[in-house]
């Protein structure tokens, strides 16, 4: 292939891939079913790390992963529970895919929320006080995307601006 | 000494004729001048600072800027840079702009991944992001002509690949598994270097990969030496090394099939590889017991000489270095040979302090230690050439 044409391909490829990536994330956030789950800080030292909040999502499952490590899904409807990938009950109508780590925690890559540094401390305090919730969008394949961080049921921006 | 000064010397010494002298000067005067490295560095620095400024502006105000505007600015910049790179393509051999814009574009791609992750709150690992970046810019990096742009791409790609592969067994990486990364990186880099030297379009990456191979191999060896000498690593799990073992197996096949190496070099490399794998294996060669004090660890003088980890570790280090030095000397790699023989000498000095560390606490001991270091340096300087001649002679 002509090197000039190949250069056009080489330049267009990253732009296209990044564009598709952003568009897919946008679609996932806009089209899934809305779910709200409470969050809590799991370690006071690591709750705020840089410009993002780190937290643990409370799926309402008492025993967590129950010793299982590996790919898993958490069923949210009709009954809540964490199951190894493939063992999900047939009647499960809404679930999130993720994995159980070696501490018995279910993780779905939604445990990070980027925030501006100026609001970091006040939001961190509120999350630690169990006032935080995560507004999610979950599609039929079990992919979860973050829509917003809620403090006492309100979007974080609204709360941050009133407290400043 | 400049080229002109050298030419004048050669002319005065009668090595070249006045006609040749004039012809060379004429050839050099009409040859397209390569871009000064400092000009190129300054331009890269400028582009990087502009990029950082844009990122800082977005980072400082990102909550107030709508997502669509942030993404719009980002993709407009990417497109403008892409057009500028294409526009500069005919001048790629005569100026620094093509390389500067290319590097800027690749860095902006990385920043774009960060921006998308920030907007959509994606919580993936940094090494997956680097691997993704390397994947989408791989084709473009083939157009880079300067060492800097290639080195940048190779460096970020290697970090993304090594950490991602190390995380493969259970899809996560924990800090206590660091030894697996240290063993995997030189093996993976050696494998990629092998590929780069055998596949023509990848030749441009070979020098960067060789640099990272040497650096990561020295770090891997130093880490194993220090931790093994202090009786550690016995409680590590062999499963952590699974990616490294698989990589080593492929590398061994590559060495065996390589037409670039003679039989002796193949055997030397395979022996060094086997010893490195044994060095990292939790309990095949090491017992967890020490004989001498090192870096403040408590010694166990009752351990027999050959069972002590701090005896076996330096022997293994020196053996691996010796095998590789013979390979380098035999293959004519002068700089590598000098570096490895220097490391052998350095390890002997450290070995002396391990065994006779108490002496360094007294005045006489310090004098003896200083004299020993000078003697080692002199021996290394004098013996290096003989060793190189011997290694070269092995090929006959």
From TrEMBL, chain A:
<dbReference type="InterPro" id="IPR025833">
    <property type="entry name" value="GDYXXLXY"/>
</dbReference>
<protein>
    <submittedName>
        <fullName>GDYXXLXY domain-containing protein</fullName>
    </submittedName>
</protein>
<dbReference type="Pfam" id="PF14345">
    <property type="entry name" value="GDYXXLXY"/>
</dbReference>
Automatic annotation (TrEMBL), chain B:
<feature type="transmembrane region" description="Helical">
    <location>
        <begin position="180"/>
        <end position="197"/>
    </location>
</feature>
<protein>
    <submittedName>
        <fullName>DUF2157 domain-containing protein</fullName>
    </submittedName>
</protein>
<keyword id="KW-1133">Transmembrane helix</keyword>
<feature type="domain" description="DUF2157">
    <location>
        <begin position="9"/>
        <end position="146"/>
    </location>
</feature>
<feature type="transmembrane region" description="Helical">
    <location>
        <begin position="71"/>
        <end position="89"/>
    </location>
</feature>
<keyword id="KW-0472">Membrane</keyword>
<feature type="transmembrane region" description="Helical">
    <location>
        <begin position="264"/>
        <end position="281"/>
    </location>
</feature>
<feature type="transmembrane region" description="Helical">
    <location>
        <begin position="37"/>
        <end position="59"/>
    </location>
</feature>
<feature type="transmembrane region" description="Helical">
    <location>
        <begin position="101"/>
        <end position="120"/>
    </location>
</feature>
<feature type="transmembrane region" description="Helical">
    <location>
        <begin position="126"/>
        <end position="144"/>
    </location>
</feature>
<keyword id="KW-0812">Transmembrane</keyword>
<feature type="transmembrane region" description="Helical">
    <location>
        <begin position="311"/>
        <end position="329"/>
    </location>
</feature>
<feature type="transmembrane region" description="Helical">
    <location>
        <begin position="238"/>
        <end position="257"/>
    </location>
</feature>
<feature type="transmembrane region" description="Helical">
    <location>
        <begin position="336"/>
        <end position="353"/>
    </location>
</feature>
<dbReference type="Pfam" id="PF09925">
    <property type="entry name" value="DUF2157"/>
</dbReference>
<feature type="transmembrane region" description="Helical">
    <location>
        <begin position="359"/>
        <end position="381"/>
    </location>
</feature>
<feature type="transmembrane region" description="Helical">
    <location>
        <begin position="151"/>
        <end position="168"/>
    </location>
</feature>
<dbReference type="InterPro" id="IPR018677">
    <property type="entry name" value="DUF2157"/>
</dbReference>
<feature type="transmembrane region" description="Helical">
    <location>
        <begin position="209"/>
        <end position="226"/>
    </location>
</feature>
């Amino acid at each position: 292939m002509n090197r000039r044409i190949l250069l056009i391909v080489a330049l267009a490829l990253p732009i296209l891939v990044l564009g598709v990536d952003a568009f897919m994330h946008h679609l996932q956030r806009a089209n899934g079913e809305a779910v709200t789950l409470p969050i809590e800080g799991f370690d006071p030292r690591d709750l705020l790390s840089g410009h993002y909040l780190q937290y643990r999502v409370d799926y309402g499952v008492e025993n967590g992963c129950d010793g299982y490590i590996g790919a898993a899904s958490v069923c949210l409807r009709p009954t809540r529970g964490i199951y190894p990938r493939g063992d999900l009950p047939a009647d499960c109508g809404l679930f999130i895919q993720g994995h159980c780590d070696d501490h018995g925690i279910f993780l779905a890559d939604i445990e990070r929320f980027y925030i501006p540094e100026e609001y970091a401390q006040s939001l961190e305090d509120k999350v630690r006080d169990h006032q935080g919730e995560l507004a999610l969008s979950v599609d039929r394949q079990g992919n979860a995307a973050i829509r917003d961080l809620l403090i006492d049921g309100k979007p974080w921006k609204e709360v941050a601006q009133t407290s400043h | 000494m400049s080229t002109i000064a050298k030419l004048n010397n050669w002319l005065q010494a009668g090595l070249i004729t006045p006609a040749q002298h004039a012809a060379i000067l004429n050839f050099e005067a009409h040859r397209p001048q390569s871009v000064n490295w400092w000009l190129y560095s300054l331009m890269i620095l400028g582009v990087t600072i502009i990029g950082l400024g844009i990122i800082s502006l977005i980072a400082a105000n990102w909550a107030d800027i709508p997502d669509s505007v942030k993404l719009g600015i980002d993709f407009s910049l990417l497109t403008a840079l892409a057009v500028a790179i294409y526009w500069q393509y005919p001048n790629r051999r005569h100026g620094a702009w093509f390389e500067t814009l290319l590097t800027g574009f690749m860095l902006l791609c990385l920043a774009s991944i960060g921006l998308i992750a920030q907007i959509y709150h994606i919580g993936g690992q940094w090494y997956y992001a680097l691997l993704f970046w390397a994947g989408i810019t791989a084709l473009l990096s083939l157009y880079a002509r300067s060492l800097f742009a290639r080195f940048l791409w190779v460096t970020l790609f290697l970090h993304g690949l090594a950490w991602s592969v190390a995380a493969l067994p259970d899809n996560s990486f924990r800090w206590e598994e660091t030894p697996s990364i240290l063993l995997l990186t030189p093996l993976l880099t050696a494998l990629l270097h092998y590929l780069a030297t055998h596949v023509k379009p990848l030749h441009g990456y070979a020098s960067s990969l060789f640099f990272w191979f040497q650096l990561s191999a020295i770090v891997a060896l130093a880490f194993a030496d220090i931790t093994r000498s202090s009786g550690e690593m016995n409680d590590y799990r062999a499963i952590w090394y699974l990616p490294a073992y698989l990589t080593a197996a492929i590398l061994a096949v590559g060495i065996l099939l390589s037409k670039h190496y003679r039989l002796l070099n193949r055997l030397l490399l395979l022996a060094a590889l086997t010893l490195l794998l044994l060095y990292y294996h939790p309990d095949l060669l090491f017992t967890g017991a020490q004989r001498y004090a090192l870096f403040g660890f408590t010694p166990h003088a009752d351990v027999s000489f050959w069972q002590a980890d701090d005896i076996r570790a330096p022997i293994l280090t020196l053996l691996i270095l010796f095998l590789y030095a013979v390979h380098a000397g035999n293959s004519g790699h002068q700089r590598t040979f000098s570096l490895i023989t220097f490391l052998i000498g350095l390890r002997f000095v450290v070995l002396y302090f391990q065994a006779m560390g108490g002496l360094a606490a007294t005045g006489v001991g310090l004098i003896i230690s200083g004299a020993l270091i000078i003697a080692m340096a002199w021996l290394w300087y004098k013996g290096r050439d003989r060793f190189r001649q011997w290694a070269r002679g092995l090929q006959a």
